[in-house]
Structure formats: structure tokens, C-alpha cells
Amino acid sequence: MLHGPRAIMGAGRFAFRLCMMAVAFALAPGIHAQVKAEAGKPLTRILFVMDASNSMNAFWGNEPKINAARRILLSSLATLEKAPNVELALRLYGHQTRIEPGKQDCDDTRLEVPFGPAQGDAIRRTMNEVRCLGTTPIARSLEKAAGDFPVPGGEGAKGVRNVIILITDGIEACDEDPCAVSRALQAKGIVLKPFVIGLGIEGGGRYDLKCVGNYYDASTPEMFDRVLRVVVDQALSNTTTQLLLLMDDDRPKETNIPVTFYDQRTGQQRYNFVHTMNVRGEPDTLNIDPVFTYRVEVHTIPPSIRENVTIEAGRHNVIAVRSGQGTLDLQADGMSGGEQVMCIVRKAGEMATLNVQAMNSARLYRTGTYDLEILTLPRTLIPGVTIRQSASTPVRIPQAGTVNIVAATPGHGAVFLRQGDRLERVVELDHRTERNQFRLQPGDYTIIYRSVNATQTAYSVEKDITVVSGRSVNLEL
């Protein structure tokens, strides 16, 4: 594989061709017929990209490599043909132009069997007739494979899994970068991360192919048989998963929380659901695609996150995420029905707003310590509030008092809270009206006022009041 300027130029050419292909998809929605998946089940399209280059004529054990690969690949069709909602296709490369010294055909790749139902027999006929002649254009084959799948975005596309299984005994031979091609196909959502099976590849060749996809090394025909079975199981997603939301004592009893599974690499949402306990009181069983690596976000406040979660195909998987919660119960005495006061909730010692919760409500939060800022007049700051597992933490503020300020004329000024010898500004007077009414927390206040008609500072007025919970104070200026 090349990593110099020629490889970079090859990747650039591929990016341009892929853009042109996307345009073609958009302009020609009838290129491929869409097949609607069976209700409730995703449609899986598996494209075999098979090496038919000259090197496949070499012996592998007691027979030519192409004979062993053909026999094992065709035996896997029996399982795939019986699986519901599966379509198959076959692309070959290196089978049309005989390789010659100093000359190779890097366009020697072709879709021999397109997608459709019941394509097993067509694949068998093609594989039985194939001759291994030419070179190994892996990057070009993957690039062309983008057009082998039905058009993205059509009917049922959201429930479709496009899978490539690349089977090869060699590395890229045409000065292009199959890793860049694979990354672009995945980033554009054309295919999932490809499966790559290396047939008797030694040394650095294995490393060169690992960046293309999920790489499996098959050093013998027997190993190829086992590996192909594993890959087919993963492609068919014959897998179950349980998500355990752990309390602080490690019991999986948290539930009824929205959860998102993101593709760890691209950030794309793959699954959204509300965590549920089944009739036995256990976390419900999920069907999660094992092809991806996931970032699991449990939408607690703040979120509970687990990175780089992998799912093993063909078995029951258990994912545990610490999600212990308790309740913050905010109460404001004597609040009238039309009055609403909000509380800003932050992690202790941090300024970022975590949540905004209305007074006279209860919400669940992750266990931990929080700072509260209640938007009363003046604001009420309550630091270091601790939320404990499955417990309710009550926070209560006293009933506000009402202050009615009446002046002969509108004026400028503000209401201040007296903090010893210091005044803390609370709220500004409305200079457009002679009447102001405020709901203030109990405490001692000073009002500083000057009429809009007064032209001298000496006409400023200063008056003190005390606000008592649940009572009204009338003040004339």
C-alpha cells in the first residue's frame, strides 16, 4: 500500500468520483428497485467483494486457493438464503484481464450478481465459472461497490443495513488507498464498516487491511470456514443485549430513562428508546447491531455516558452504565397559581447551567452535589445541595411579600437589599409609571428614587422598608 503523494492523489480522485456518484443517486432515483423490509425487521444487503486475481491460483493446503474459497463461500449461502430479509450480491475483481509483466488493469472489477431476492443460484454459477487472471484493485472495487447498493434515502432505507464482506489474499496493487475509500463510504452512510477476511496473508499485509474494516485473518481453509461463519452471524445481527442502569449500590434498578446509542466514530444516532423493565422486573432485551462501536448516553441529569461499547455477535451481551438518581424537590411557600419561579441547577463549583426546574416541582438528578440559584427577587443562592440514591432532597424557600410603591410622578431609581452597610441592587423601578409592584423575599430593603421631572440630585428620595413573608407593604414616594 502506498502512503506517499500517489496515494494522496488516489484518495482525492476517489473523493471526486464519490461526489459524482452521490449526484447521480439524487438525479436517478430509479436506478435500483427498493425492496421493502418485512414489518419490524431490517433489510440486510450483503455484498461479497471477492478476490479473483491471479494470486488466487496459488495452492492453499492441498488445493488452489480459489477452489477452497469458492467451496466455503458457497456453503455459507445456505444459511443466508434461509435468513429473512436478506439480499445478496457479488462483485469480483481481477477476473477479466490477464496480468502481464509491467502491465495491469486497475479497472478490472465488476458487479457480476446484482442485489435481489433469491440470488444464491446466480452467485453459485458465477463462482463456478470464474477464472483468476489479473491484479488486485481493492480501492477501485470498494469505490464501485458504492453504486452496487440501491439508492440511499428511498422507501424503507432507514431500516436497511448495507454490508460489504471483502475476501482477499493480497493487498492493494494499484497505487490507491482502500482505507480512505472505506472511510468515505462509511462517513457518507453508504455502507456499514466493512468486514475484511484475509486469506493466508502474512506480515505487514494484515496491518494494511485492518484500516479498511473489521479484519479477520484466515491462515488456513479451515480457519476461513470458521471466520466466515462468524462474519455472517455478525452481518445478520443474530445478537441480544441488555442495558443495566446501575444504582449506587450496583443494583440494576434504574429505569424509565431515555437512552441513545451513538456510532462512536461518526456520532450518528443509531438507537433511541426509553429504558424498560420487562414483566419479570429485569431490564428488557434489545436487538443492537454488533457491527458498530457505540457511545451510550443515558439521558439522566447530567447524562450518564459509557464510551467505546462493543457488541459481540451471536451471544447475549450485557452493558452496565452507572446511572444512580435521587429527587430534588423544590418548594416555595404560598406561591399563587399564576406565579412561576424557576431554579437554575448547576454542578457544585461549576458555572454551566445543567437544568432549569420550576419551583413546586420534583425532578430526578444523578447522585451528587449541586448549587442552586432560584430566580426570586433577590435571587436565592443555595450551594452544596446533595442528591442521594433513591432519596428525596427537599429545598424550601419562604413565601414572598408584596411591595406596592406609589409615587406622585414616574421616576428613576431601584430597590436595594440591605446587607449590613452594603446595598445589593435587586430590581429597577419602571420610570414610565408612578406605580410599581414587586414580589420580594423577606428582608430589609432601601428604595432610592428621583422624579423624572426633578432636575437636581437633591430631590432624590431614600426610604427603608421591611418585607415580611406573606404580607403586603405600601410605600408612598
Any overview of this molecule?
19% of the residues lie in helices and 38% in strands. It has helices at residues 5-27, 65-82, 120-129, 138-145, 178-187, 204-210, 221-236, and strands spanning 43-51, 59-60, 63-64, 86-93, 109-113, 160-168, 195-199, 214-218, 240-246, 258-263, 269-274, 285-286, 293-298, 304-310, 316-322, 325-332, 342-347, 355-358, 361-366, 368-374, 380-387, 392-397, 401-406, 411-419, 422-428, 435-440, 443-451, 461-467, 472-476. The strands form 8 sheets. The chain has a 6-stranded mixed sheet with strand order 5-4-1-6-7-8, sandwiched between helices. The chain is elongated, with a radius of gyration of 34 Å. It folds into 4 domains: 10-236, 3-Layer(aba) Sandwich (Rossmann fold), CATH 3.40.50.410; 240-322, Carboxypeptidase-like, regulatory domain (Immunoglobulin-like, Sandwich), CATH 2.60.40.1120; 326-397, Immunoglobulin-like, CATH 2.60.40; 401-476, Immunoglobulin-like (Sandwich), CATH 2.60.40.1120. Residues 1-16 and 18-39 have low confidence and may be disordered. With 477 residues, it is of the alpha/beta class. The chain is built from 7 helices and 29 strands.
